Amino acid sequence: MTSRLDKLFESKEDFKKRVDALWKTREGLNHIYETRPELRESILPQFKAINDIIGVLVTERTYHPSSGFQEDQKATH
């Protein structure tokens, strides 16, 4: 499984594109969680799972959709 995941995140652009999509999914789940109290129990496990996945990915390569890759920020300063 690891080699298949590695291929999904092979290039910096692939990583950015997929993490951005995961982050948008997280935002959508968060919106549902906040606005639909009756769905909180069913949304919470999904929200936690996506947080865990994003957390592992950005631990390996520090990245945030609003600020980009940490190493790119260091190179410009």
Walkthrough of the structure:
- This protein is mainly alpha-helical and 77 residues long.
- The protein has helices at 2-8, 12-35, 40-60, 70-76, and strands spanning 63-64, 68-69.
- Strands 1-2 form a two-stranded antiparallel ribbon.
- The protein is elongated, with a radius of gyration of 15 Å.
- The termini are far apart.
- The relative contact order is 0.12.
- The mean pLDDT is 85.
Unreliable segments of 5+ consecutive residues: none
Judged by helices, strands and strand pairing, the structural class is: mainly alpha
Task: State the total count of DSSP E strands.
Answer: 2
Order of helices and strands: HHHEEH
Rg estimate, integer Å: 15 Å
Most strands sheet = 2 strands, antiparallel
Proportion of residues in extended strands: 5-15%
From the spread of the alpha carbons, the general shape counts as elongated
Proportion of helical residues: over 70%
Mean pLDDT: 85
Total helices: the number is 4
What is the strand arrangement across the widest sheet?
1-2
Distance between the termini: 37 Å
